[in-house]
Amino acid sequence: MNKTSFKLTWTGEKTPLEALGDALGEVLWPPAGAVSLSKDDATVEDGASAWRLDAYFEDMPDMEAVETIAAEHQVRDAELEELPDIDWVAHSLEGLGVVRCGRFVLYGVHDADKLPNEADDIPIRIDANQAFGTGHHPTTAGCLTLLDRFAGWAPKSILDLGCGSAVLAIAAAKLWGREILASDIDETSVEIAAENAALNEVGDRLKMVTAAGFDHDDIKAAAPFDFIFANILAGPLAELAPDMADHVAKNGRIMLAGLMTEQEESVVSAYEAAGFRMINRLDQATWPVLLFVKNAD
Question: Is residue 95 pLDDT above 80, yes or no?
């Protein structure tokens, strides 16, 4: 069910607005759910075309933090608007374009005619909806980029924990041709994940369940897993470290995302204490992606 959401709007020159849009998704916490940049009918002082930046938030944003970030990019005078009963994600994500992450190419139905169609491409259709994970946020894109780097490895049992729109589960199903178990705490996300799996013709390979963490009979029955995605938040990631160790096979791997750079040390410490060793890291300015292996001992 939709609820009141919020939109911040700035109008001005393209370059600072474009930089601000990136910062609202990569630096601000909690980040903007989505941003869109488009030409505006207004004009700037020199008569050039003005641009409009819209940033959408599910909850009231921290205006002090927003204004600080905006000022750093020399952008001011935001207009705040409440948006009751609107699917704010779908409204804002339409037309965001094709996203390439290694061989993975994410697109919405409105961009199907823009696919590059390279021989090794793995297309994934994710239309705008209420579930997190379109590939536009650095956490999702980073997971796909890192996944592409070790595609030659073929795990047999795979879990996408906190799957959102199931981008990562779909990518794994297409890459490895395996059956994937995907879970999310939100029932709407699970429903959308199933729809996305069908859209990408991997519905027969993905099984979706509603669960908090590992608390589901199907997850317990399928464990131990050779590979687990967990693109959630730093706090839950750290808390799940012991449970993660209980549900991953020896020498199994886990990919963690959703943490910010300043939260990385605490997350790494939690997983090292639980018997994991970090073996790869995708270095991004704000949102690193970590790959661990479970020690055999």
Answer: no
